[in-house]
Amino acid sequence: MAIQGLIGKKIGMTQVFDEEGRVVPVTVIECGPCPITQIKTEERDGYQAVQLGFGGDRKPKRTPRAHMNHVHKAKVGPQRVLKEFRVDDVAGLELGQLVTVDTFEEGASVKVTGYSKGRGFSGLMKKYDFGGGKETHGSHHHRATGTIGMCATPSRVHKGHPMAGRYGNERRTVKNLRVVKVDTENNLILVKGAVPGAKNGYVLVQASRA
């Protein structure tokens, strides 16, 4: 199929054994089935792409009317996530068509995009792994920032200086993850290594381009 990506949900991490008996840490991702909610063509939109949906358990009464009208054209229910994927050719694709996990093959290389865990407002020791101040002799600056600039020259704080602030909850992509197993019955794929985000977080799984 021309579509080389799916929307998924991170289930968690576990481990499996390969053919040589070695332990392989894997992340379990529930991928699809994702219905096609919109098809974009070169003539109408200037490029070719498909919009996929995921999370069909969304309640209609808690869904905006614009979203309901949009998915009604594809004759599918309200979706929790809508994402667009570029394709080379939209021929043979139809609204409402389901894209399943068999899009990926075992041994293939994929990239996974998600949002890292949000840790709120954090200090320098947690955010940047600073060493901290003295722990003895009456010090009151165990986890304090300390000096952040110069006195007279240039008499300002340099741009990009590490400071306390919001930590995490940023879009991150991990590339070149190997697909260890594809479970078509349960719509699951197992990829080697870790992926961004917490459990039950939504991720994008796309085939890595050569």
Descriptive key words:
Elongation Factor Tu (Ef-tu), domain 3; extended; mainly beta; 6-stranded antiparallel barrel; 4-stranded antiparallel beta sheet; 210 residues; 2 domains
Short précis:
The protein is mostly beta strands and 210 residues long. The protein folds into two domains: 5-119 and 170-207, Translation factors (Elongation Factor Tu (Ef-tu), domain 3, Beta Barrel); 120-167, no CATH class. The protein contains three helices and twelve strands, in the order βββαβαββββαββββ.
Question: How would you characterize this protein structure?
Answer:
- It is a single chain.
- The protein has helices at residues 42-45, 65-72, 124-127, and strands at 5-17, 23-31, 34-40, 49-54, 81-86, 98-99, 109-115, 121-122, 165-166, 171-183, 188-192, 202-207.
- It contains 3 helices and 12 strands; from the N terminus they run βββαβαββββαββββ.
- The protein is mainly beta and 210 residues long.
- It is extended and about 70 Å long.
- The protein starts with a strand and ends with a strand.
- The model has no long low-confidence stretch (mean pLDDT 92).
- The chain has 2 domains: 5-119 and 170-207, Translation factors (Elongation Factor Tu (Ef-tu), domain 3); 120-167, no CATH class.
- A 6-stranded antiparallel barrel has the order 1-2-11-10-7-12.
- Strand 10 and strand 11 (188-192) form a beta hairpin.
